[in-house]
Every structure is written in structure tokens, then in C-alpha cells.
Amino acid sequence: MKNKNHLRTICAFIILLIMVGATIAAADFTESETPSKQAIENCAAKIFEYDREQIFSDVPIQQWYTHSIHFLSLLDENIKAVEDENTVETMVRFFPSKAITRAEFFRMLKSYGKLFRSEKEFTLTTKTPNKKVTQKEFSLTLNRVMGIPVELVTKEFKKNKIRGLSRRDAAYVLLKAAEASMISSAEETICQVAALEDPDNFEEIFGTASAAESPTQDNQDDSELPSPPQETPQMDDRKIPSIISAKINFAPVNPRAGESVKVKVQTFDSEGKTIGGASLKLGLSAGLDSWKYLPLKETSSGNYEGEISSQWAGKYLVAITDGNKTFSGSRELVFQPHYPAELKLSLETSQAKSSSKHEAVVAATLRDKFGNVIETSARDYRVTTSLGTVKKTEQVGQETFITIESDQWGPAEISISHLTRSVQDASAKISVPFSPYVVDVPKGMDAGNQVKIPVYLFLPQSKGKIAQYRFSLDYEARDLTFQNITDLDPNDAFDAAKITVSADGTLLLEQTTHGLPVEGAVPVGMLNFISSGVATSGTIMAHDGTVLTDHEKIIAIDPSSEWGEDFFRWWYGIKPYKTVCLDIWMAEGSGVNRTEALKDAQKASDMYLAAALKSFCPFYINFDIHFHTISAADWTAKVDAIPGTANVLDSGEEANLRNNFPGTGANCVQIWYVPDIAPRPDGLDPAGLSYPNDGGIAVDNHGDGIDHVLGHELNHQLSGNDVLDSPNDQGNLQGARDPKNPMNYNDPGFKLNKAQCDLIKRQTYIQ
Questions:
Q1: Interval 206-225: pLDDT, tens
Q2: pTM assigned to the model
Q3: What one-character-per-residue DSSP string does 117-180 give?
Q4: Where residue 161 falls among pLDDT bands split at 50, 70, 90?
Q5: Are 448 and 531 contacting, i.e. CB atoms less than 8 angstroms apart?
Q6: DSSP 8-state symbol, 756
Q7: E strand or H helix at 567, and its extent?
Q8: How far apart are CA 276 and CA 273, in angstroms?
């Protein structure tokens, strides 16, 4: 018979597999004994467990469930082995794509039910035969009709990540649940395979139906049987379709910082049909090396919900990930700043640092309650000053700069407010000093080196022109040793100032013009000191001055009578130098040479220098740089891992770089310019990554156009990852959201602040 022959082929194949793969073990029966029905059931179940993938390897996918019935029929010696063609035709044939209906499920239960010798009435209602069967109905019915525990059926659904119930899925889950039911209820009987050396003994040993019960039809045409496929399908072909893409919706679509955004996600297979059952997360990428993951909950098949909230105002790339890959359909979500809460004012450029020596620049930054900068327009600011005039108001990046030009001495009380549609959002005041003596003291000094301090005299136009001057200057004699004075402008009307040095640290400066009187800001001279010790702070203070004008009027300048002694106080710190060793590795294919790498390092060095000069960082940093190369052959042999992408730094491969290219020493920061950095599971394609606990920085410079990547990553590295990126700096406590800060994703630059400098102290690297 055609069906019996096919059954024999399957059985023989199974037994051959067992003969190869199983170990002969002691059992409750010998070769000459006929095993009990329980032993047969146990043995058959274990055969199915051993190599279920191979059992159906000779049949097309759409018929695998039919042949599983042939095999399951062996579990009951009272049921003949599906030998006649009519029986095969009555077995419900499910096709993969369409959902199972109540009517089809009813027919399937009748087909499969006889394998379990069920005499129960199939009570599933067919009043709505075309209605889809739910998973719950499927599980409960199998439990009621066939006695398969609900939890076993449910487990198979979850195990195979089935949410939508297709015809093929229904048959597959039933088969797997039946198998689990048999194995869970059977005793641990070991199959005795010694008696199965001859495949012809299969029926004798297992007691399958005899030929007399089903007439032999050897001369029957076999053309109706499915022929073996040209390529053997694997079990993976029978799995549910994979998620290919995701559709993401936000509500609201334009949130403000601090608000919650409801996220709804639909997942689809390659045919555009919704598919679920996966454990998914929201991947959020802010830029460079900042990312985080948030949970998603499946509410129905292929439909998920989550929530995103952020106190950071900026752009996230939102992706759907299962932890290994990201599905197409990522979207951008931009959190706008919250409403204006405060106006931050700072003295960007003091009188001493301005080129004219009679101007000062104030920076205004409008922020929300979370510290986010709110983009503004210069025309929306209203500025008043008690001294001088407002020369210019301009917008540069996220900041507004107001230039005040002084026409007098004294503190300029500056009031600034921001208005939106004539409604005042926020206002603030700042006091900016304008002094007759301008001493441009550096904020930081290197112990043991010479320090040059320029000094100017500022006489407003209303006071006349300078004919002669005299004033004193006090300094910390314990920390500074005066050397000499040089003329800043040999071509002006003043020669180098005459100077008298007192032992207590007082300098008397005086000079008379040798030509016509001069006006405005006059360079007096360059004072040269040697920093003789290390101190945290000190003072240089000017006082007791007089100026003789061209009108022969003597102007006495008494600091205490007008604006107080502190008006002339400058603070400085004498700071040590620290050395940071950098091992810079340039991999072949990275497109980076020594010149480009050195340029990046110089910008990072300038960042730390500027912070030290502003009294932010407690020391200067010198880089000790060692250059190395990694050939393409070495990258392939020593970096690329399997599985992985060739010539790409995949996750975990930084360990290969670290272990195979040790560099100068453990105290050196390892910097790898790599051909490419693999995108993260959440969709982030980083230009740089830092591994603070292991010691290494990876940089991908391909077309990123970002020149602060190395400095950004060094801040992570030298702080042990304590310096945070702007999305993670809640409340802007570190200032990572400040304009032009290297950790700011919205407006990056090189302006470190004191809070960040205080964290850059990892002794492993800072020597």
C-alpha cells in the first residue's frame, strides 16, 4: 500500500537514527519479549524527542503535520496505522498563512481526537464557523476534549512565540502539547534498541497494525503521495515568521521635558502582517555614546505599549529591539524644553579680558526648571544698565551675548529680561565692575614658571586725558617673586613705568608722559613674576591711585570710598602639571593618520588648559602620546571575532584590542581609531565609545565631522565614567547641558566647568 510503504520508510528512518545515536541501556524487557503498551508509548515519545527535526525531513513543509499523525498513530496499538487513502484525505490539511476558524478547529479535533481514543462529544460551538479561534479557546478545548493540561498548551504557545493562531500553528502546538503530555505522564522507561537492529522487526516489537486489517494495495499508483523535496527543509522553516519591522506612534508627538509619552508599537513580519510573542524593549539613543532601554508590554498580538519620559530636552532615536537586533521603523522623538523658569547670567568677558579694556560681555541663557536651555532670539531680550550703554546684543548658538560699553568707573548694574509676545518669561540682574586699573591676572599659574601680568590704566573720556599717573599694587610675596617690568607699547606716550618694590609685597608704579597726553585704556606695562610656591589662592590688588589730566586736574582714586576694596581683588591659583599617557592606535582602514589624531589630541588638550586657566580644573594636563598602528592582517587575526562583522568593532571585541595590543603600559589610556564601530541593538551608530573600567576609547572618524569626540570620551575615561552626558545629568547639576559643553549633545564644544573638572581625578591615568 502506498501509505503503509511510506509509513515503513519513516519508521525505518527513525530506527536507523536511534541505532546511530542512542546508547544501549538496561530495560524492563528483553529482545524476545514484547514490550508493554506503556513502554511503546514511552519509547515512541523519546524517539520523537531525540530527532523530531529529522522525522519529517523528507516531506514538504505543508504536509509535515499529516505525517506527524502517521507517527503519533503508533502510540495506540488499537488504532490502525492510517493505511487507507480515505483516512488521509479526512485528516485536516492546514496551510501556513491563514488563521484557523472554528469550523476548521472542529474538524481538526475530530481528526486528532481518535489518536487519544476520546469518546467525548466535541462541543465547540460552530454557530459562527468562520470566527477565528483564540488561544484561550484552543487551550481550554484541548484540555476538555483530549485531557491535555492547559499549561502545557500555553507553554508551547509561549515557547514558540505564537500570538496570532494560524492553521499550521494550531497543528504544531497541538502536536507539541501532546508530546509534552505523554512525556510528563510516562514513566522513565529506557528504549531497548538492541532488538531494533533489523528494521523489519519494527512492527513485531512495537505491535503496529497487521496487513490483514488493511488490504495491501501494492499495485496502486503512488503519484498522489507528496514527493520528497529537492532541498531538505529544516525545522526552522516551520517556526513562526520573524519580526521584520515595527511601527511606532507617540502621544503626544511634541512633548516637553518632564512629560510622559505613551508609546504604541505594532510589529510586522515580512508579509506586512502583525506578529507578536517577542520580548521587546524600547531602545533610546541620544547621540555619541548615550543610550538606555525601557520596557514594552504586549497588550495583544503584535501590539505593544510603553512609556518614555525625559527631563532632558533633546532628540532621541527610538528603536524597537529584542536585545540582539533592531527592527526597521525607528523614529525620532524630540523633547522640547519645558516652559521658561529662569534666566542665567554670567560674565563671559570681563573688562580685563576685553580688547578695548572698557567693555564687558554678559552671557544670558534662558532655561526651564530642569536646566534645559531654551532657544531664544536676541530681539526678545530687554537690557538696561546703570553705567555705560548697551553696545550690542547677539545670538550665538544657545546663548545670547550682551556687550556693555563703559563710560565711567564703578559697578554696572545690568538688568536683563526675556519676553515672549510682550509677556516677561524671566529676568535677572548682574553686577559688572569697571575699574580705573585693569590688571589682567591669569586664573591659573604653573608653579616655578614665569607669569606675565599686563596692566592697563583706564580713564573715561569725560575725565580728560592722562598726563601722569601713580598707583600701588599689592601681591602675595610668599607665592610670587617680582622680576621686572617691560613696556607693553614702546610707541605710545609713556615709557616703561617706574617701579618701586617693597619687601612686604607692594609695588609702586608711576610715570609721566613724554609727549601729548593719552586717553582711553592705556597699557602701563607687563609685570613679570616667578611663582615660587604652590597655593590654592592669592590676591593682586591695586589701590591709592592718582591721575593728573591734561587739564592739570588731579583725580584721586580711592577704592574704599566708591565701591569697596573687593572691587580690585583678583584670585589666582598656582597649579601643578599632571601627565596623562595616551596610546593612540591607528587601524588600517580607519582613514586616520598621525596628523589627524594629533589634531584631535590637541583640541582635547586645549579643553583642559582653558578649564585650568579659568580656575575650574585644579591642575594642568600634559599628554604624553605614543603612536602605534594595527595592520589589516592583525585586525582580522586578532580583533575580529566569530560571529561578527569583518573590519568592524563589534560589541566585546574591545577586549581583543586590549589583550592583543598592550601598548606602553597599564597607566596609559588606550585610544583606538577603528575602521568602523558596529551599531548598537537600539540603533545607535556611535562615533566614539569609552570603556572606563577596562581602559580604552574607540573612535570612528568616518565622516562624522565631530571634532570633540576624543575630548568627550576622555572626560568619561579620566573620571571613571563619573562625568555624565547631557541626557543623564538630571537637573544639570554637572552643567552637561551648558552651551558649548563637551558633554552637551545639543550644542557641543570645549567649555568644561568646575563641577566636571572636580570629577576628572582618576589616579590610574592622571600621574
A1: 333 222 222 223 322 322 22
A2: 0.66
A3: T--S------SSTTSBPPHHHHHHHHHHHH---HHHHHHHHHHTT--S-BHHHHHHHHHHHHHH
A4: confident
A5: yes
A6: H
A7: none
A8: 10
